[in-house]
Amino acid sequence: MTEFLAANPLYIVLGIVLVIWFAIVGYLMRLERRIHDLEQSNTR
Amino acid sequence: MSGKIRALPWKGLLGVWTTLVIVLSLALPMVARPEHWYEFPIVPGLEDKARIIFFHVPTAWLSVLAFVSSMVYGIRYLRRKDLHDDVRSASAAGLGLLFCLLATVTGAIWAKFSWGAFWNWDPRQTSIFVLLLIYGAYFALRSAVEVEEKRATLAAVYSVIAGVVMPFFMFVIPRVLESLHPEPLLNLEGSAGSIPVPKLQMNTTMLAVFLASLAGFTGVYYWMWTLRVRAGTVELRRATEGEDRD
């Protein structure tokens, strides 16, 4: 595995970009829920 | 019908779409003479560094889209005096600034590997730096005015002026002055004067992934924008309710 990644460093970049992307999606989902809760509490 | 469309899990689809685009843009091989559908052509002088276009160009495109929509909602605010338009305009400007910053950072990382330094005061870098200053000043202006209506009016006028100036910095100046930046994708006949610059020539697969990346990033921008607008609307409603109570 280490040898494969050393020979193909682009896959390390791919891994990092995917981690960042999933973190962004997770953060947006969390924001979505929080804003939804705020909207609900505002309409009550 | 529209209810059904709204009920589609578009955010899930967007997540899958963009994940696929990221994987394809970084994992598909680059070869001198592509013979299979899954191969990208090598860009002479750029090689693997050319893959930055799948991330850098969409961020730059989104900053333009955001600044234009900020201007459009600014004009709408000036015509209708509806504070919701101010929220939409400010949300778009904020995202425009974010994507402009991302375009600057991704461009600087690319410049380090291609030109040897993160920052060279190339016309592209200088013009995007001025744009960052212009839209940074927009938020300085907003934070300096406390009265909501006055702040919204001033910000709307500023967003219109900034929106008119923006194309000159984004499209005109980098094309007029000599630059080391690779030739613009949509200007195949263009040239940067006497300086030889790499020219991106995409095959169908590369173009398809690039367009898919543009679409995916635009979807992410729209998602972020709606979240900011919804949060801003809640804040606005609470502020007006507070004023009514007083």
How would you characterize this protein structure?
The complex is a heterodimer of chains A (44) and B (246). Helix content of chain A is 91%, strand content 0%. Chain A has two helices and no strands. Chain A has helices at residues 2-7, 10-43. Chain A is rod-shaped, with a radius of gyration of 18 Å. Chain A starts with a helix and ends with a helix. The mean pLDDT of chain A is 90. With 246 residues, chain B is an all-alpha fold. Chain B has one domain (10-29, 47-236). Helix content of chain B is 72%, strand content 2%. Chain B has seven helices and two strands; from the N terminus they run H-H-E-E-H-H-H-H-H. Chain B has helices spanning 2-7, 10-27, 53-80, 83-114, 123-144, 148-176, 204-245; strands at residues 30-31, 40-41. Chain B has a two-stranded parallel ribbon. Chain B is globular. The model of chain B is unreliable at 186-193 (pLDDT under 50). Chain A binds chain B through residues 10-11, 13-14, 17-18, 21, 24-25, 28-29, 31-32, 35, 38-39, 42, and chain B through 11, 15, 18-19, 22-23, 26-27, 48, 55, 220, 223-224, 227, 230-231, 234, 237-238.
Give structural attributes.
heterodimer; A: 44 residues; mainly alpha; rod-shaped; B: 246 residues; two-stranded parallel ribbon
Global geometry of chain A: rod-shaped
Range of strand content of chain B? under 5%
Encode the helix/strand succession of chain B as letters.
HHEEHHHHH
Instruction: Give the overall form of chain B.
Output: globular
Mean pLDDT of chain A, nearest integer? 90
Mean pLDDT of chain B, nearest integer? 87
Radius of gyration of chain B over all CA atoms, rounded? 21 Å
Give me the secondary-structure category of chain A. Answer: mainly alpha
Helix share bin of chain A: over 70%
The number of E-state strands of chain B comes to 2
Number of DSSP-assigned strands of chain A: 0
What distance lies between the first and last C-alpha atoms of chain B, to the nearest angstrom?
43 Å
User: Which bin fits the share of residues in helices of chain B?
Assistant: over 70%
Count of discrete structural domains of chain B: 1
Most extensive interface, chain pair and sizes: A-B, 17 and 19 residues
Taking all Cα atoms into account, the compactness measure Rg of chain A is 18 Å
Strand content bin of chain A: under 5%
Distance N to C terminus of chain A: 55 Å
Could you name the ranges of chain B where pLDDT drops below 50 across 5 or more consecutive residues? 186-193
